[in-house]
Amino acid sequence: LVQNAFLELAIQHFSSFYALCRSAQGKIEELKSAQEEKAENMILTQFKLENIVYCQDTIYSEDFRTVRATKISPDETDSAEECSVAQMLYHVAAYFKVSSILYMFRDFAEMLQNAMLLFLQSGDQLEDLFHEEKDVVNIRNSLKERIERLHKAQKLLKKF
């Protein structure tokens, strides 16, 4: 999802500059691979942590039994509170879904921006990157000429 969105943006904004578009797509692919590797390492670390036996498990178990043994009477809980808790659960579930996607987009965008700036600052192939196809140059030049003619016509109409 994130990769496709940024690939579409690269094509949309850099389609006139073939080399720059290819370079941007390459950077996007590199970042995706790096993030996949990072996520895989984090998951493996989480699995390793889950295999560790904690020495304080008995303390937690005793505290949990004590709290569970304390019964809450029905008149202490209000049905309005229960409804609001249920509503909060829906909001939290929706929030985490949206916020996680937004976080991924922003994080990826920041990394891509930094990578592209570093790439462009290297300055090795800037001329090649910003080389335009001949037809694009011709279209741009003809549009500039049209604008100049329209400005001249506008000045003549103002004088008339």
UniProtKB/TrEMBL annotation:
It holds the Pfam family GED. The lineage of its organism: Eukaryota, Metazoa, Chordata, Craniata, Vertebrata. Signal peptide: none annotated. InterPro entries: Dynamin_stalk (IPR000375), GED (IPR003130). It comes from the Eukaryota. SMART domains: GED (SM00302). It comes from Laticauda laticaudata. This is Dynamin GTPase effector domain-containing protein. GO terms for molecular function: GTP binding; GTPase activity. Coiled coil: none annotated. Residues 80-160 form the Dynamin GTPase effector domain.
